[in-house]
Amino acid sequence: MLLAACTADTAVDDADEAMAAEPQNEPPPWPWELEAAGQQVLASVPLSEIRSGGPPPDGIPPIDAPVFESIAAADDWLEPQSPVLVVDLGGDARAYPLAILTFHEIVNDVIDGRPVLVTYCPLCNSGLAFERTLDGEVLSFGTSGRLWKSNLVMYDRGTRSLWSQFTGEAIVGQRLGDRLERLPLQIVAWGQFTADWPDGQVLSRETGHNRDYGRNPYLGYDTSDSPFLFDEDTGGPLPQMERVVAAGGDEDAVAYPLPLLQDERVVHDDIAGDPAVVWWTPGTASALDRASIDAGADVGATGVFRRTVDGQELTFSPDGDDRFTDAGTASSWTVLGIAVDGPLAGTQLERIPHDHTFWFVQFAFRPDTRVAEGSR
Q1: Contact between residue 358 and residue 124 where contact means Cβ atoms under 8 Å apart
Q2: What is the Cβ-side half-sphere exposure of residue 362, based on CA atoms within 13 angstroms?
Q3: Which of 127, 237, 270, 312 has its CA 20 to 30 A from that of 361?
Q4: What stretches in the chain show pLDDT beneath 50?
Q5: Strand 162-164 with 169-172, pairing
Q6: For residues 369 and 87, what is the distance between their CA atoms, to the nearest angstrom?
């Protein structure tokens, strides 16, 4: 299945050329080369669990020099329901269409002057962003062609250590145990991004690669019965491929099943000890359903936020399909956590990093996850 996103072209697709944008010393051996040579490999997980997904390193080519365009330009090829990853740092708001990320999975970017790693694993539907600066060093990442628990395994180009996308932690190699700082990211509809960030930037299709952007290389994955290259028994109360919104860490993880959010639209909860709210709005297409991403099933968009503003704990209710109202001030909010009307207009709720993913991967990485049944 990964090979579907690894079609040949005449662009810069191999690992050596993908790294040519920055000076490189002789790269260290890959962990699997060391293992084959009988040498010791630093690892926190059995190497046998890290499986080849098909492509070689950077066979799914990361984007190292992203080109951005205006909303007006992107409107020519994106639809209101097109799913995009959204990262906003210091008012520098950027949209990364899944029409592009399904073919590249990694973008090494700089947002508001900060080196940032934007990632998407189609097999887990997990979009995560991280700081790329670690101990004063700016890291550059590529795709290893490997999977762990059916999740994207990245590598850093300095040491060729292997990193789990879902946790942001180095699991093999010299950087074993290092962890990237996570940044908030949401998957929302293109129409929502343009409404909230009319001056935002959009990742362009000018990637240097010849891909049929907008086509879904994972046709029907959303409705499959089981994950790709995943043999674990997740057990628990949910089907493996049920979508969930998950937040919290290893000790306090909580998952909100998508059917619950579709029914209630608003769930109030405590996440890692903080009063929080989880929102869902319709209108965002699945990138993993039909042949055309824009024709995918409506899986909606979600947001997870701390619901305390200036010391006041807010309580929310749905207001139409795409807004939420707080009971205290009657201000109107969008799923991106921005108040657009009322006394709190212009306020941004503090985002809580979360995953809009499948149950199997949440359980595989955080087996003690609490499954929410509603507000509490």
Answers
A1: yes
A2: 33
A3: 270
A4: 8, 10-23
A5: antiparallel
A6: 26
50-52 and 141-148 strand pairing: antiparallel
- Collect all residues with Cβ–Cβ distance below 8 Å to 136 and sequence separation of at least 6: none
- Give me the residues paired with residue 357 across strands: 244
The pTM of the full predicted model, rounded to 2 decimals, is 0.93
Distance (Å, whole) CA 44 – CA 162: 11
Q: From CA 76, how far away is CA 295, in angstroms rounded? A: 17
Alpha-carbon span 176 to 232, nearest angstrom: 24
Residues paired with 271 in a beta bridge: 274
Q: Which domains does the chain have, with CATH numbers?
A: 2-7+31-47+57-188 (no CATH), 215-371 (2.102.10.10)
C-alpha 203/C-alpha 220 separation (Å) is 25
Joined together, the tokens standing for residue 307 give: 């619901």
pLDDT digits (tens, 9 = 90+) for 225-259: 889 888 887 777 899 999 999 999 989 999 999 99
**H or E segment at 36?**
helix 31-36
Give the H or E element holding residue 309. Answer: strand 308-309
